[in-house]
C-alpha cells in the first residue's frame, strides 16, 4: 500500500513538474515576444509563433495524463482537488502562451516598423518585465507552494494594471504620433499583457487555494 | 446496481441541465448588454453588471457539484471524460458572461452617450445578433448533442470574424467621426464579441468531441 501511495505521489509530482515546465515555456515566449515587439525583430516573432503549437501540444499531453491519473487512481478529497486544479492551471498557462503568440503576431504584422511609438516604449518595456516577473514567480509558486509569493503575484498584477492605464492614457493623449491604426494595435497589445497577468494571478490563486483551502482576501 | 447507475445518470443529466441554464443566463446577458450598448441604456447595462456575480456563483456551485460527483462515483472512461468536459464548458460559459459584462461596462462608462458611432451601429447590431444566435445554438447542442449544429456554431463564428474585420476597417477608415478614445472603445468591444464567439465555439467543439471521440476537422 505504501508503495502504491508512493507511485501515486510520484505521478502528482510529475504533474507539478510539467506545470512548471509549461510555465517556463510560456515565460520564454513572453520574453521573446516582448523583445520582438520592442525591437521589431521578425525572427524572434516567428520563433514565438512557431513555439505556440509546442505549448498547445504539451498542454494536451499533460491534460490527458492528468485525466488518466484520475481514472486509474480514483483519488478523493485533496488529491482529486489538486488534479482538477492542475487541469485549470494548464488551461491558464496555455492561454498565457496564446497571448504571447498574439503579441508576436502584431510585431510580425508591423515589421519592419515597430508597433510601439517612441512615447510608449518605456511603458511596454515595463509591461514585458512585469509579465516575465509574473511568469517566473508563478513557476516558483507551483514548485514551492509558497502562499506569500502567491500573494506577491497579485501585487505584481496591480503593477500591470497601472501600466495598462498608463498605456491607455498614452494612446489617448498621444497627439499626432498616434494614428487610428496604431491606437488599435496598442489597445490590443495592452489588453494582451493585462490578460497575461490575469491568468498568472489565477494560477497563483489556485495554488493558494490548494494550500489554504480558501482564496486570498 | 441498475438503480445506482440510474442515480448516477440522473446526476449527469443534472449537470447537463445546469450547463444549459448557465448558457441561458449568458445568452440573456449578451442580449441585454448589446441592447444597452446600442441604445445607451444605463439601466440595462447595470442589470448585466449585477447579473455577472450570479453567473459566477452558479458556475462555482456547478463546479463543486461536478467534483463531488467525480469523488463519490469514481467514474472512468466516457463518464469521467464527460464530467471533466463539463468543467471546461462551465469555464467557457463563465468567461462568456464576463465578456457580456465588459460590454455592459463600456455602455455604462459612455452613458449618456453611445459608445457606437452611427457608421458602426449596423456592424455592432449584427455582432449582437450573431452572439445571441451562438448562445442559443450552444444551449441546443448541449441538450441534444447534435454534432451538425455544433459544426454550425463554427460557421457562425466565421460570420463573427467577418464582422470583427468590418469593425476594424470601420474604425480605421472612420475619418473625423472616430476619435482615438472611441477607437480604443471600439477595438475592445470588437475583441469582446470575438472572444465571446470563440468560447461558444469551444463549448460546441467539446460536445462534438464527447460524441465523436475527436475534434471536428
Query: β content of chain A, as a range?
Result: under 5%
**For the record, what CATH class of chain A applies?**
Mainly Alpha
Query: What's the end-to-end separation of chain A, in Å?
Result: 39 Å
Remind me, CATH topology of chain A?
A: Methane Monooxygenase Hydroxylase, Chain G, domain 1
Explained architecture:
The first copy, chain A, is mainly α. Chain A has a single domain (11-212), classed as Methane Monooxygenase Hydroxylase, Chain G, domain 1 (Up-down Bundle). Helices cover 86% and strands 0% of the residues of chain A. Chain A is elongated. The N and C termini of chain A lie far apart (39 Å).
Question: Layout of SSEs?
Answer:
The structure is a homodimer.
Chain A: H1 2-39, H2 42-73, H3 77-110, H4 121-144, H5 147-172, H6 180-212
Characteristics of this structure?
homodimer; 217 residues; mainly alpha; Methane Monooxygenase Hydroxylase, Chain G, domain 1; 6 helices; 86% helix; elongated
